Amino acid sequence: MGQPKEAAVIILDCGRTMAAKLDDQDDTKTHFTLAKDAVIDQLKHKLLLNPKQQLAVVCMGTQETSNSMHDEVEGEGYHNVTTLRYSSNKTGLGDGSVRLVKEVMDQGCEDAESNLLDALFVACDLLSKGNTYLGKKYKKMIFLYTNGLCTFDPAGEEDGIAALLDKMKEMECPLYTIGIGFTGDTDITAGGGSGDGGGGGAAAASAGGTGADDDGHRAKVEGFLQDMANKTDGIVQPSTNVLDNLRLFMKKVKLQRTKYREILQIHPNMKIPVWSYIKCKREPLPTAKKKLKVPTEDGDQVRTDTQYQKVGVGDDEDDADIQLMDIAKGFRFGETTVAVAEHQIENITKYQCDRNMVCIGAVSASDIPSHYLMPPCECVVAEEHNKPAAEALAAVAQALEELRLYLICKYSYCKNAQPKLCILRPEAKRTKKCLYLNPIPYHEDMRTLDFPNLEAMKAPSEAQLNAVDTLIDSMKMTKHTGGEGEDDEEDEEGVKGSDELLRPRDTYNPTNQRFFQALLVRAFDPQAPIPELDEKINSYLRPDTELASAAQPAVDQINGAFTFQKVEAKAVGRKRYWREVLKQKDENVFHADLENLKVEGDDDGMGGQRVPKVEEEDDSEQQLPADKRTKHTISTGQTIKHFNDLLDKAKTDHEVSDVFEAMAFCIEQLIDDREGGGSRRAFEAIEEFRSKSIDKTKPQQFNDLLRKLYGRRSDLVAEIQHKGIALITFEECPGPGAVSLAEAQQHLSASETPAAASAGQQQQDNDDDELMGTIT
């Protein structure tokens, strides 16, 4: 989405009347300093956020005169008006440069008369001459910063004012006046707004005193400017706190361009012409550009050339460099690279489809969880100036809203673009009816997250539930400010009769703001330190103090209803790499560790250089209780193989029992590790454990483990029952600890409930996902 192109002329009143003080206690704060600071901030924002623009500053009330209209009339008029611009093209306006900002910084308040009409004529003349080359692609604007006490005598200038107004209308050029000390209401029209990212329109500088009005002269000037603004779709803005926002907040302005202009097919016999606009999309930081540290006569731009060489061939050899035409692209298939011709890559990586938006069906809104709504969000409206399409889309949105349904559609915004499965959500307000489009995930986009069954946990008490309800109610960030009648207006987020503390439209990204502020400082002083982020922006990341104070009684209620216990973090073993092994001075230790070296592929899975790595030391032995420590430990990586190897090496009955105890502990570790296939491998280990317990006549160890899992991990009961893992009976193994067949059956079916069956099905789904993940 592109940025709008702007051609703006800023008029700054530098006359003697602008020397009026704002504060009797501080002689440095005047109407002029406030206006100049606002102009500097506006120029900085435009240079930083929108490089596609043409800028010029007209200073009225200067002792010297330097403007094109004064030269054209051979010095007979337009005195005390100076034009600041740095132009390298035929438009007559400047390209936007740091030098322009520095010129304004050096400008002072001068002892001369400032003529309002002369400044407006010069500004309009600059835009008129530039309009020949700029055309309609550029949005023309005039900004005026004044306190209204400048010279203004419309007598005898009626024809000139009429011509000025006609020319501004022809160029569609609004006049934005920032009045210091102005009175009256602000007339903000629908077409108002400067497109300036910093303050959202013409910024008003906040002033304290108003100074002498000279028998209504300021009111006369304000009335004239208000009339000009009304006729050009502009604004007259009195002094407000917008100057603070102009200094702090910066946002790139995007053009309102459509992403999709085609048909929304509800049914083969019902098609609506629609336009789609991007509503929400994450704004990235600008990318850094490469340049020469010391610019030359040709400039400071550099070009990047890529050189390809064979791996393992030195630079001094003849066949080191290879040409781009000798390189083929390919995709990994195991250890093989499948070569694909350059002209065939798009045929493989792109899905062949047409540009369309076709509805597949409708689902209940409750069937689409909120985490399925993926970015970006688009706003789908009827085609412009198409009344039948607007009526049809409004009817669809209203029907979906009343039935609480969403539409599922297949969406491809251009030909051969990746097709997306999307939902269309209705927005049926009194003043706006549209559909919001969000992509929803395919199977490959979803992640399988396995968590313990909440139904098996202890249910919270009534007092605990009430305490949490009170806490949530006390943390509401929306304050009710009015009624909820039909006449109450809704804000942009659809909240009626309320005021939200942290609205997205008023909340700026601290990362972006810090970057913009630092870049502005470095643009004028490359050696300046990075400034601290403004406290107002930094406050977004901290809880509201008023809200926290109001919620404190609820927090105290939570502390009384729940018992809190500090959980110590488990120590994690450290991996040792082969470089550490090579540093060992003891040769015996070196050779012993080499036996444990384990070769692993690179992390990105692309088959890069393999790096040997020493396997992490297993400290599971130290985690066993003191009375159950054994001399054997079984790895959770290859549990069954390690278990069988230890059983084959065990020569005495004591050693066999030792291995079985280690296996039981390893199974508990696998069950706790429910990510990465730990749950599936745990049940494979349990089945192997049961089989070997029968072979070695050790039913006691297995039955004790199974009862322990039933007692400690009740959420696993349904999974164990689903797989049919029962206690070892006398019929299977007549050893100590075996149970009767009736007891085994009773134990297996004791907790069979619908919830258990559901959990079993969930485990089956998880097993299927893990199996598919292993296969693919």
UniProtKB/TrEMBL annotation:
GO terms for molecular function: ATP binding; damaged DNA binding; double-stranded DNA binding; helicase activity; hydrolase activity; telomeric DNA binding. GO terms for cellular component: Ku70:Ku80 complex. Its main location: nucleus. Residues 484-493, 765-776 have a biased composition (Acidic residues). Residues 478-508, 599-625, 744-776 are annotated as: Disordered. InterPro entries: DNA_bd_Ku70/Ku80 (IPR006164), Ku80 (IPR024193), Ku_C_sf (IPR036494), Ku_N (IPR005161), Ku_PK_bind (IPR014893), SPOC-like_C_dom_sf (IPR016194), vWFA_dom_sf (IPR036465). It comes from the Eukaryota. It is found in: Nucleus. GO terms for biological process: DNA recombination; double-strand break repair via nonhomologous end joining; telomere maintenance. Keywords: ATP-binding, DNA damage, DNA recombination, DNA repair, DNA-binding, Helicase, Hydrolase, Nucleotide-binding, Nucleus. Residues 319-457 form the Ku domain. Pfam families: Ku, Ku_N, Ku_PK_bind. Residues 494-506 have a biased composition (Basic and acidic residues). Belongs to the ku80 family. This is Ku domain-containing protein. It comes from Vitrella brassicaformis (strain CCMP3155). The lineage of its organism: Eukaryota, Sar, Alveolata, Colpodellida, Vitrellaceae.
